[in-house]
Structures are given as C-alpha cells and as structure tokens.
C-alpha cells in the first residue's frame, strides 16, 4: 500500500514538481491580491480621523445611512414576497398562461435596473403619461419621488432576481412530504405554512439576501427617483465627484456593514433547521398538491398585475425610442436609434458589448482556473484563496467600484480612465458566481480521470484544456451567459470608473434620463436590450443544447 504524504512540505514539493500547477496557483494569488486585497486594504487605510469625524458629525450622512437601510429592507422584503408568490403560482397552481408568465419574469433581466427608473419617470414622473392622465381626468397630482417611488422601482427591478432564486427551490421540493401531510389532515394554508413554506425557506432567505445586496449598492434608481431622499450610494458618488476620496471611503465601509449583517442573519436562520427533501425514497408518479380554484384566481390576478407593470415599463421605453417625443409628437422615427446607438461618435452600446464580452470570457476563465487549483491541487493558503475568491460577491457593487477607483488613481499602479479597470470591476462581481458553480462541478467529477491523464504524461495545462474543459463545457457556457448579461446591464459597480472614451450603455441611459432627454435614454435602452438578445441568440446557435437561454 502506498501512503500519500501529507503536510505543507509535501504539498509544496508536489507543486514544485508540476510547473503548470505552480504557475496557475501563483497567478491566482497574484490577481486576487492585486485586485481584491490591495484595493480593500487601500480603502480601509485611506480615510483619516477628519473623514470619520466629518461623517459622524453631519446628520446628513446619518440620514443617508438610515434611508439606505430602510429603503433597501423594504424593497428586498416586497421583492422577495412578490417573487415568492409569482414562483408559487407557477409551480403550485393551475393558472393559465404559465409559459407567458415565465417569459415576463425573464424580460427585466435583459434590461439594466436603471431602465426601471427611467420607465417610472416616463409613466409616473411629473410629466409622465399616467401622471398627466390623472391630472387631466381627476385633477390629482402624483408625487411619487422619494421613498414611495424608490420602493416601487426597486421592487419591480429586483423581483425577477427573487423569482429566479425561489423558483429553483420550489421546483426541487419533492411532493411526498406534502402528500403525507395532506393524508394526515393538513389542508390549505396549514399545509402551505407547515410544509411548503418551511421547505422553501432557504430559497426565500437567499432571495432576500441577493435583493438586499443589490438594493444597498443601487445607484441609478435612487439618483433618478430619490429626489431629496438621499442614500449612501448617491452620497459616495457625490464625494468622488467633489474629489473627497477619504470621505467616500468612509461611507463605502459603512455601506458594507449592512450587507455583511444580511449574510450573518442568513447563516443563523439557515443553521436552525433541516430542509432536505431528497431522501432516496421513490417519488416518481406523485403529483404535487395544487391550490384551490379561489386561490388560483387570486394568483392569476397577482401575476397579471406584475406582468402589466413589466410590460408597461418596456412598452413606454420602446414608444419613446421610436417616436419623436412620445406624448407630444407621436410620429414614428428611427432618428434616435441611428443617432445614439449606431453613431460612431456615441459608441456606448458598442463599448458595453466589447467590455462585457472581454470581461465575461476572463471571468469564466479565471473562475475555471481557481476552481481547478482549489479543488484538485494541495497547496498552502488554499482556504485564503477560496475566501478571497468569493469575497467580492458579499460586497456591494458600489463599494467594489469605489475601492478600485481610489486604489488605482494614485500610487504605483495607475489604471484610472482605462478600460482595464472597467473590465476588472465587471470581472470581480461576476467571477465568484462562476467560481462557486465550477467548484461544485469539479467535486462531481471523479479525480481518477485526471490522474489517469497525468500518469500518461499530461501536465496540468494539458489536463485542464483536454480533459477538464470538455467535461464542464455546459457549466462554463452557462456561467459565461450569466456573466455577459449582468455585465451588459451593470451600473453601480462601474459608475465611478467610466470616462468620456469608455462610456457604457447603462451609464448613458442614466445620464440622458437625468438631463431630461428621455427619448435618447430610451433609444440606448432599446439598443442595449437588442444587442444583448442578438448576442445571446448567436450563442444559442453556436452552443445549441449546451446552454438554455430562451427556455422559459
């Protein structure tokens, strides 16, 4: 029997004997140290005593912090509730039009969250279509700026994220426990409360976590809709514009605290119970317990209202994009599209496409390397590398962008104003998702396959490219599609990093909306969504069954 030696010395020895693995490990540490650890340390060390004193002495900043917690909590709560009801109606009711409702839930993912704020302005702003109708017909003036409007906008913006998270959990719940409970007398709400909801609780909590993190970091919607209701993300942007990086860093660090608290609360809640439903017992042929006819009617009405909101958001944006000035001059025109989307002097959509493709390829490639070395290769510091790799997903996008701009606008490495910094910011926010997925996939692949390749003379580089990559191709492509869609629509993470040369579509939408040129903002939004759809269509043609994009 051959006993494998363990310990730090033997791990280093094996790593040195495999130069390809050694290079991959060193590159992984170098990249994460440079773009995660270094900016984090820099942003923590940057503020002086004056900056901290200023933050705690001015009630304006304390109010912004309170507003951020209140609005984000309310929006996360309502988005999660709406997402749960919507997903529950898809999986537990007999309502008509389920495929249509799935499609509606997918639509907002194509658009940047700031487009929801734009559509809200076009519908419910002071000059919006609904506001003008209410004033003309009922002499009622709508004023939804501030918390009410922001609450509505963030709920609609992030409800699809909650739905996507919860629907996966509801789909995986085995019907055997629900049928057993029904046989023991549980019916209706009692069955839902004691069995279904408890089993779905991990998905509900994860949905709340993801939505809350996005709401904490949201910049575009609060800036457009918030009015005098100031939030920390907006205040950080103002201090960066005013060249006060120290004070901005203080607020960025404060912004991280609620996000980390959400993670702690999530861990505490999920550690108190067992939610397993896959027990090895046969469940084929069992039909899930469905809701009553009356409940179906209520769920159908709810889903229809959500669908109406989402369709109205897209419809008003398209109308403004393809008319001269909708509501005042409804003449059809393509001028806005050609002037803003296809004009070489205004390449925001093209910039988004190029930067998103590059960043997504790098993010998935780096995630593959990280997952490979962490799961397959023994080396000192593996836990540190693993923690650092997933750290950016716990940080609000606003904070990630802030850390990069303050760290690389001074010092030995100057990247301010370059496309590299935008690509890095996109990579850092999307790479952890791919890393988690690929890590799980690696653990499902027997290590003996790679060992056989090694025994036949293949080094780590060849094993990775000829053995590992083909086996994980579906996971890699799926993560690339996810990263690409998120990068195309991102705003909060890169709003500090853009320059006149490298303006992206989401930032252009925000800039045009803020200056009141709504038809141009709408044109960029339509161009962005069209480009995203076209690119995803090409990916579907290339990879076919290896990726599911339009299967609702």
Automatic annotation (TrEMBL):
Pfam family name, one: BPD_transp_1
Entries under Gene3D superfamilies matching the protein: MetI-like
Family annotation (PANTHER family): POLYGALACTURONAN_RHAMNOGALACTURONAN TRANSPORT SYSTEM PERMEASE PROTEIN YTEP, PROTEIN LPLB
Similarity remark: Belongs to the binding-protein-dependent transport system permease family.
Organism: Paenibacillus alba
Identification of the protein by name: Iron ABC transporter permease
Keyword Transmembrane helix in annotation: yes
Annotated compartments: Cell membrane; Membrane
Entry keywords, A to Z: Membrane, Transmembrane, Transmembrane helix, Transport
PROSITE patterns: ABC_TM1
Residue ranges of coiled coil: none
Main localisation: membrane
Source taxonomy: Bacteria, Bacillati, Bacillota, Bacilli, Bacillales
Membrane topology: Multi-pass membrane protein
Bilayer-crossing regions: 21-45, 65-88, 100-124, 144-170, 191-213, 247-265, 297-322, 353-375, 387-407, 413-428, 494-513, 519-543
Annotated ranges, domain ABC transmembrane type-1: 65-266, 349-537
